[in-house]
C-alpha cells in the first residue's frame, strides 16, 4: 500500500511541478520582442527630469488601476513594466522626489552622482539576463563594458601595498589569479569548481519561489532541496570556512573573499553560495549604463505610461489599505497632513519586507504568525557610507579609468571588519578598514559631452546604523554640528587613503560630501540605512527561508518585489520582479524569456547566413 501511496504522491507532485514550471495560464509579457532601435542617449537633464520627477497629485492618478507598486527602485519599475507589457494599468508611487531608488542620480555643484550602480555583470549578448533587461527597457538602455581587469584588490598599508587585478572571463579569471599566487594553483582551481557549482545552481532558489508553497515547503523541509542543489548545501556554510580550508595564504584568502563588499557580510558570516553567485555574475564581464544610472528609470517609465499607468514621486505611502477580511485593496499616500486613498485590486511592495510589514500594515495584522515567521527569518543588512567627490579635470588628466578599487588596510578581513564595527565610533571612523573606490564619470562615454573637464569619484564603505541613529529625526541637511564633525572625520580619513592611491586628484577636489546610514534612510527609505536590504549571511540561504519568503504575502492581494526576495543587486532585484510577475500572472516568466531568447537567437543566426 505504501508503494502505491508513494506513487500517487509522486505523480501528483510531478503534475503540480509541471503545471507551475510550464504553467501558462496568464498573458505573457515576453510574447514578442519589443526592442526598438536605440534612440540617442538622452543627455539633457531637464528632459530626463520631465519623466523622472512627476509629482504626485490626486488628479494624476489614472482611473481603474490594475495594480499599485510602492517604490520605484529597479524591482518596482521592473514589475510595473512586466504588467504594462500585458496591458495592465499600473501606478508606481515613490517617496523621494525622483524615480529610481538605488538607481537614482543627484547633482551638486555641476557634478552628477549616482548611488547604487557601479557595475553590473552577466550582460553578455544573447545571455538570459541581457534578454530580460533589453525587454524591460525596449532595447533603449545601452551598456558600456568596464576595463579588464574590472576590479583591483589592494591589500596593506601604503608602505607595503599589494595590488591584485581581477579579470573577467572564466579562464582569464583563474589564469591571472594563478600568476599572482604561484604554488596555489590547486586551491584556486578547487575554489572555482565550488563557486561554479553553487553559483550556477541559483535556479533552485527561484524554483522554490515559483512552486506552490506546499510543494516548495515539502522540498525544503524534507531536505530534498539540499540534495538537489549545491546552492543550499553550501548556502549555510560560511565563506571563511570554505576558503580557509583551501589555502593558508593570507593574501589569497583575502582576494578570494574581497567581493563580499557587493552584498555586505564579512567572510565569517557570508554565505558561500551568495558569494559564488556574485563571482559568477561578474565572470562574463562588468558593464555600466551609458549616460549614467538615471537612464534606467528614464527608459522604463514610458513603457508603464504607454499602458495607461504612471510613475509619481513625492508620494510617500503611509499605509496599505485593507478591507474587513484583511485583504489589500489599495494604499494611502500622505499629501501634506492629509491622506489620499488610491485603490487597486493588487498592491505590490518594493519598499522591502521590514518597511512593508512593520510600517505599512496595522499592528494587529503584523502580529499574524505567518508574518512574524517571515520577519524572524531575515535580519537588517549592513548599513553604508558613501563619499562623493567632484573633481576638476578629465579622466585622463586625473588618471581615472573605468574600473573599481577595493582597498583593505590589511588582509585579515574578518578581524579588520570586526574591530571596526565593535570599536569606538570616533576612533573607528578615523581609519575605515574597507573602501570601494570608483570613478563613475570615467565609465560613462557620454560624460565628456555632458560635463566637460570634470570628473567624479565615489567611495563606498560600511558603518553601523547605531552610530548615526541619534540624528535620524533631525532635519536632513541640517542635523547639527556633531553630525557635521563626524562626517568631516570620515571624509578626511577617506581622502587620506584615496589620495595615496590616486595622487593626481589631490588638489583637484571641488566638491565633497558624505552620505551616512541615515542619508540612505531618508532618500532610499532603507529602514536601518541598509545598502543591500536584508542581511545576506548564512542563515538566509537555507531552503526553508527561500521557500518561505515569497512574492505572495500572508495578506491576500499584497505582493513583494525587489531585492528582499532573491538577493540584492540590480540583477537580484530584477530576479525579485521576475518571481513576483510569475506569481501575479500565474506563469513561469523564466520559461517565457528562454523561449523568446531561443527565437531571437534563431532569427539572428538566419540573418547572418
Ligand atoms: C552604495 C550602493 C552601491 C551599489 N552598487 C551596486 C552595483 O555596483 N551593482 C549592483 O548590481 N548593485 C549595486 N547596489 C545594489 C543595488 O543598487 C540594489 O540592490 C537594487 O537597486 C535594489 O533595488 P530595489 O528595487 O529592490 O530597491 P530600491 O532601489 O531600494 O527601491 C525601493 C524604493 O522604494 C521606495 N519606498 C520605500 N518605502 C516607500 C513608501 N512607503 N512609499 C513610497 N516609496 C517608498 C524607496 O524610496 C526606493 O526608491 C548598490 C547599492 C548601494 C546602496
Ligand atoms: C580647474 O583647473 C584649472 C587648471 O587646470 C584652473 O584653471 C581652473 O580655475 C580650475 N577650476 C576650478 C573651478 O577650480
TL;DR of this structure?
The protein has 609 residues and is an alpha/beta fold. The protein is built from 27 helices and 20 strands.
Mind explaining what this structure looks like?
Keywords: Endoplasmic reticulum, FAD, Flavoprotein, Lipid metabolism, Membrane, NAD, NADP, Oxidoreductase, Signal, Transmembrane, Transmembrane helix. The chain is an alpha/beta fold. It has three domains: 2-57 and 65-106 and 123-140 and 290-378 and 540-608, FAD/NAD(P)-binding domain (3-Layer(bba) Sandwich), CATH 3.50.50; 173-252 and 263-284, no CATH class; 379-537, no CATH class. The protein is 43% helix and 16% strand. It is built from 27 helices and 20 strands. The strands form five sheets. A seven-stranded mixed beta sheet has the order 8-7-16-17-18-15-19, sandwiched between helices. Helix 2 (45-52) packs across helix 14 and helix 6 crosses helix 13. The protein is globular, with a radius of gyration of 24 Å. The model has no long low-confidence stretch (mean pLDDT 95). The site of flavin-adenine dinucleotide has 39 residues, from helix 3, strand 11, strand 15 and helix 26. Residues 70-76, 93-96, 101-103, 115-120, 316-317, 350-351, 355, 384, 386, 460, 524-525, 531-532, 562-563, 568-571, 573 line the site of flavin-adenine dinucleotide (FAD).
Amino acid at each position: 500500500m505504501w508503494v502505491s501511496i508513494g506513487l500517487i504522491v509522486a505523480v501528483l507532485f510531478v503534475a503540480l511541478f509541471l503545471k507551475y514550471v510550464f504553467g501558462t495560464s496568464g498573458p505573457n509579457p515576453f510574447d514578442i520582442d519589443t526592442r526598438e532601435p536605440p534612440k540617442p542617449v538622452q543627455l539633457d537633464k531637464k528632459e530626463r527630469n520631465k519623466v523622472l520627477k512627476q509629482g504626485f497629485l490626486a488628479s494624476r492618478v489614472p482611473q481603474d488601476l490594475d495594480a499599485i507598486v510602492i517604490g520605484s527602485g529597479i524591482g518596482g519599475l521592473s514589475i510595473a513594466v512586466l504588467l504594462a507589457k500585458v496591458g495592465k494599468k499600473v501606478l508606481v508611487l515613490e517617496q523621494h522626489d525622483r524615480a529610481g531608488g538605488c538607481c537614482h542620480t543627484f547633482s551638486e555643484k555641476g557634478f552628477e552622482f549616482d548611488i547604487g550602480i557601479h557595475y553590473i555583470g552577466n550582460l553578455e549578448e544573447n545571455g538570459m539576463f541581457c534578454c530580460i533587461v533589453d525587454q524591460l527597457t525596449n532595447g533603449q538602455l545601452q551598456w558600456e563594458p568596464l576595463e579588464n581587469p574590472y576590479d583591483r584588490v589592494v591589500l596593506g598599508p601604503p608602505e607595503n601595498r599589494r595590488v591584485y587585478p581581477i579579470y573577467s572571463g572564466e579562464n582569464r579569471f583563474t589564469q591571472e589569479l594563478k600568476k599572482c599566487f604561484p604554488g596555489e594553483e590547486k586551491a584556486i582551481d578547487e575554489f572555482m569548481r565550488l563557486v561554479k557549482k553553487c553559483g550556477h545552481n541559483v535556479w533552485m532558489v527561484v524554483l522554490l519561489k515559483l512552486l506552490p508553497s506546499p510543494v516548495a515547503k515539502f522540498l525544503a523541509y524534507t531536505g530534498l532541496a539540499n540534495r538537489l542543489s549545491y546552492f543550499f548545501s553550501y548556502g549555510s556554510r560560511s565563506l571563511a570556512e570554505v576558503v580557509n580550508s583551501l589555502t593558508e595564504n593570507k593574501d589569497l584568502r583575502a582576494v578570494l573573499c574581497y567581493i563580499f563588499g557587493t552584498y555586505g557580510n564579512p567572510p565569517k558570516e557570508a554565505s558561500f553560495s551568495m558569494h559564488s553567485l556574485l563571482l559568477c555574475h561578474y565572470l562574463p564581464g562588468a558593464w555600466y549604463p551609458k549616460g549614467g544610472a538615471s537612464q534606467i528609470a528614464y527608459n522604463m517609465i514610458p513603457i508603464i505610461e504607454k499602458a495607461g499607468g504612471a510613475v509619481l514621486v513625492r508620494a510617500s505611502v503611509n499605509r496599505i489599505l485593507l478591507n474587513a477580511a484583511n485583504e489589500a485593496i489599495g494604499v494611502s499616500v500622505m499629501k501634506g497632513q492629509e491622506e489620499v486613498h488610491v485603490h487597486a485590486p493588487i498592491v505590490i511592495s518594493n519598499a522591502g519586507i521590514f518597511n512593508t510589514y512593520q510600517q505599512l500594515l496595522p499592528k494587529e495584522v503584523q502580529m499574524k504568525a505567518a508574518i512574524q515567521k517571515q520577519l524572524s527569518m531575515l535580519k537588517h543588512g549592513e548599513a553604508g557610507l558613501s563619499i562623493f567627490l567632484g573633481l576638476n579635470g578629465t579622466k585622463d588628466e586625473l588618471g581615472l579609468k573605468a574600473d573599481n578599487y577595493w582597498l583593505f588596510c590589511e588582509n585579515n578581513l574578518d578581524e579588520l571588519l570586526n574591530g571596526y564595527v565593535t570599536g569606538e565610533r570616533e576612533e573607528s571612523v578615523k581609519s575605515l578598514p574597507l573602501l570601494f573606490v570608483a570613478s563613475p564619470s570615467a565609465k560613462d562615454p557620454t560624460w565628456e559631452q555632458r560635463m566637460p573637464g570634470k570628473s567624479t569619484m565615489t567611495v563606498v564603505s560600511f558603518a553601523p546604523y547605531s552610530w548615526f541613529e541619534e540624528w535620524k529625526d533631525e532635519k536632513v541637511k541640517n542635523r547639527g554640528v556633531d553630525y557635521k564633525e563626524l562626517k568631516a572625520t570620515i571624509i578626511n580619513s577617506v581622502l587620506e587613503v584615496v589620495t595615496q592611491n590616486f595622487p593626481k586628484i589631490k588638489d583637484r577636489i571641488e566638491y565633497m560630501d558624505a552620505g551616512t546610514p541615515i542619508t540612505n534612510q531618508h532618500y532610499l527609505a532603507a529602514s536601518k540605512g541598509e545598502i543591500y536590504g536584508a542581511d545576506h549571511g548564512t542563515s538566509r540561504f537555507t531552503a526553508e527561508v527561500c521557500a518561505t519568503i515569497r512574492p505572495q504575502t500572508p495578506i491576500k492581494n499584497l505582493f513583494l518585489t525587489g531585492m528582499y526576495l532573491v538577493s540584492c543587486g540590480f540583477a537580484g532585484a530584477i530576479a525579485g520582479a521576475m518571481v513576483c510577475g510569475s506569481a501575479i500572472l500565474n506563469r513561469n516568466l523564466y520559461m517565457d524569456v528562454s523561449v523568446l531568447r531561443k527565437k531571437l537567437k534563431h532569427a539572428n543566426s538566419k540573418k547572418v547566413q
